[in-house]
Design brief:
The chain is an all-beta fold. Helices cover 0% and strands 53% of the residues. Strands 2, 4, 5, 6, 9, 10 and 11 form a 7-stranded mixed beta sheet that branches. Strand 4 and strand 5 form a beta hairpin. It is globular and about 40 Å long. It starts with a strand and ends with a strand.
């Protein structure tokens, strides 16, 4: 059974930082692309960071320069380092793996508020 477990979310003030972690079990992550998406209240889920099997990354302009995605296939883990957080980053964040099949985590809340 494939499981993705996110951790590291919570509340932070504007300008603060958080690191989200996603530990994957049941598959070999080196065979998959990995990434993070988020869902803002009342809106569709949007991609915030993607990292290919090769290590190539892709992030939208809204987070580029503030968010960094990394992967450690030895630990079956994908990380999302988030700096200079803004209130508009408040959302539920989901990690995923994508290959022959696609799997998603349950999501974790990130709240940016003063």
């Amino acid at each position: 059974q494939v499981q993705l477990v996110e951790s590291g979310g919570g509340s932070v003030q504007p300008g603060g930082s958080l690191t989200l972690s996603c530990v994957v079990s049941g598959i070999i992550t080196s065979n998959y692309h990995m990434g993070w998406s988020r869902q803002l209240p009342g809106k569709q889920r949007e991609s915030v960071a993607f990292i290919a099997r090769t290590g190539h990354t892709n992030l939208p302009d809204s987070v580029k320069g503030r968010f960094t995605i990394t992967r450690d296939d030895a630990k079956n883990t994908v990380l999302l380092q988030m700096n200079s957080l803004k209130p508009e980053d408040t959302a539920v964040y989901f990690c995923y793996v994508r290959g022959v099949s696609e799997y998603w985590g349950q999501g974790i809340q990130v709240t940016v508020s003063s």
